[in-house]
Structures are given as C-alpha cells and as structure tokens.
C-alpha cells in the first residue's frame, strides 16, 4: 500500500497545475496526502499527477468513475498507470463494475511491478440529507442503510473500502470489519463554513468514529491562512 504519513488528505480543488503546486508546496510538509478531483483533473489532466509525484505524497484521484464495467476498467487502468494511490468508483455502478475496476488495477500493477492503488466506492454523497435523498433519489430507507448495503456490496466485489460521510462510519465499521478502509469527506472543523455539505463532523469526531482518512477541502483551501488551518486540524487529530 502507498504510505500516508497521517490521515489528512487535502482536496486540491483548484483550476490549474500552478495553483495546485503552490498549495501542495505550502501544506505538503504537514498533509498526509493530496486529492485531485474533477475540477483539477479536468483542467490539468495527468500532468498534475506527474508534477505532484515530485512532492512524494500519495494522491487520491477522485474521478468517481461510473459507467459500464469495460469502460470503468479502461479508465482505472489509465489512472493506475498515472500513479494513483487511491481511486474511486460509484457503488451505484454495481458489483460487476466495481469488480472490473479492482481487477483492472490489480492486473495493471502486476504487469508493471508497482503498488496497486486502493479502489474504493463512493456511497451516498455527503451533500445529501435524509430529506433530499428520499425526495430526489427515490430511496425510501435511511441513508445509513443504503451506505452500509453499498459498503457490503463493495467489499464483496473485492474493493478496499468506501467513501462515506462521517455519520455512517460506525455502522460501516460494524458491518465491514476493521480492515475495510473508510474515507470521509464532509469534515468541518468547529466554526468553519458548512458550504454544500449536509452530513458533517469535525476531524477529531470523525477519527473517533473510526475513519481511516479524512478528506478536507475548503476549510483549508478557502482559509485566510491555509497553513494554520492544516496545523489546527493536525493538532485536533493528535489530541485524540
Ligand atoms: O469522493 C469524494 O471525495 C467526495 C465524496 C462525497 O460524498 N463528498 C465529497 O465532498 N467528496 C469530495 O470531498 C471534497 C470535500 O471538499 P470540502 O467540502 O471543500 O471539504 C470535495 O473534493 C468533494 O469532491
């Protein structure tokens, strides 16, 4: 497995390589890893992954793949070759799609003699609350039940873990066991803006619930002093 020096993954949700590298330079000595999502990858492509490799921190490539199994397998191969330490697919894409992704990652790394990325499933996005989940997604049950069902399905498909809100961590841990990786966005240090997130906890609370990795974007990227924001989160984490 790629090694993260601490559980804090900073989402580099910016528009270009220069901005991403500037941020990575500043917070690199403190962060556990970086996340490159749709905004940056669709703007800068694989160049940003190549340049971030120079920082020697693992990168979670968050493109939330969701397509037929063959297409997702091809995309997974590409992101694996580009050095992703973690990559994600939507659990809603189904078991065959998830299995195709993890098999593609395994095959690609076995051929290259490299370390396989963790392949994790996105469950219910942290921007849903129970009300919008019911109204817009047509699910009658609770978010937690859906997240746990998808987590179990991801585990059966051979995935390494899931992305879920901090509110579901304990239930996932109970259902999927200690070795299943749980990555949680929707992290909001006390007193920071919630923005479009609906299901949130503070960094310390999320770790206490049993998260393996915390994904944090705007509480750091939009902070007046980004470095101070990262350090404050680490202080909270270390005091746990
Ligand atoms: O897959 C993700 O990383 C993800 C899943 C999810 O359910 N919610 C979610 O916010 N994310 C990502 O996590 C990051 C959270 O950013 P902030 O809300 O700015 O902290 C963003 O880059 C999102 O794309």
TrEMBL record:
Which biological processes are named by the entry's GO terms?
Answer: 'de novo' pyrimidine nucleobase biosynthetic process; 'de novo' UMP biosynthetic process
Q: Which residues form a coiled coil?
A: none
Q: Does the keyword Transcription regulation apply?
A: no
The residues that hold substrate are 13, 35, 62-71, 126, 188, 197, 217-218
Pathway per the UniProt entry: Pyrimidine metabolism; UMP biosynthesis via de novo pathway; UMP from orotate: step 2/2
Q: Which PROSITE patterns match?
A: OMPDECASE (PS00156)
Query: Can you quote a single GO CC term?
Result: cytosol
Q: Membrane-crossing residues?
A: none
Q: Which GO terms describe its molecular function?
A: orotidine-5'-phosphate decarboxylase activity
Q: Could you tell me what reaction this enzyme catalyses? A: orotidine 5'-phosphate + H(+) = UMP + CO2
- Domain Orotidine 5'-phosphate decarboxylase: start-end pairs: 7-233
What EC numbers are recorded for this enzyme? 4.1.1.23
Question: Is NAD one of the keywords UniProt gives this record?
Answer: no
Which InterPro entries does this UniProt record tie to the protein?
Answer: Aldolase_TIM, OMPdecase, OMPdecase_AS, OMPdecase_bac, OMPdeCOase_dom, RibuloseP-bd_barrel
Which residues does the Swiss-Prot or TrEMBL record annotate as the active site?
62 (for ompdecase activity), 64 (proton donor), 64 (for ompdecase activity), 67 (for ompdecase activity)
Gene3D superfamilies the UniProt entry points to: Aldolase class I
Q: Which Pfam families match?
A: OMPdecase
What keywords appear on the UniProt entry? Decarboxylase, Lyase, Pyrimidine biosynthesis
Domain of life per record: Bacteria
EC top class, as a word:
lyase
- What assembly does the database describe for this protein? Homodimer.
Note the NCBIfam families from the entry.
PRK00230.1, pyrF
Q: Which family does it belong to?
A: Belongs to the OMP decarboxylase family. Type 1 subfamily.
Query: What's this chain's function?
Result: Catalyzes the decarboxylation of orotidine 5'-monophosphate (OMP) to uridine 5'-monophosphate (UMP).
Task: Give the protein's recorded name.
Answer: Orotidine 5'-phosphate decarboxylase
Q: Which organism is it from?
A: Pelotomaculum schinkii
């Amino acid at each position: 497995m790629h090694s993260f020096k601490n559980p804090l993954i900073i989402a580099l949700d910016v528009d270009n390589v220069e901005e991403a590298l500037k941020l990575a330079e500043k917070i690199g000595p403190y962060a556990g890893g970086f996340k490159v999502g749709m905004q940056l990858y669709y703007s800068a492509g694989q160049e940003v992954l190549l340049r971030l490799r120079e920082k020697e921190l693992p990168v979670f490539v968050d493109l939330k793949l969701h397509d037929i199994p063959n297409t997702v397998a091809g995309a997974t191969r590409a992101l694996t070759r580009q050095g992703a330490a973690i990559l994600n697919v939507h659990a809603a894409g189904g078991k065959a799609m998830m299995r195709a992704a993890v098999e593609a990652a395994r095959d690609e790394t076995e051929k290259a003699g490299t370390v396989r990325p963790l392949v994790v499933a996105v469950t219910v996005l942290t921007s849903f609350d129970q009300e919008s989940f019911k109204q817009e997604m047509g699910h009658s049950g609770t978010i937690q039940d859906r997240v746990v069902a998808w987590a179990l399905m991801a585990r059966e498909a051979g995935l390494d873990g899931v992305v879920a809100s901090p509110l579901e961590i304990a239930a996932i841990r109970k259902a999927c066991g200690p070795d299943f990786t749980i990555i949680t966005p929707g992290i909001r240090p006390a007193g920071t803006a919630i923005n479009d997130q609906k299901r949130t906890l503070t960094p310390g609370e999320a770790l206490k619930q049993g998260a393996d990795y915390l994904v944090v974007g705007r509480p750091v990227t939009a902070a007046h002093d980004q470095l101070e924001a990262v350090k404050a989160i680490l202080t909270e984490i270390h005091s746990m």
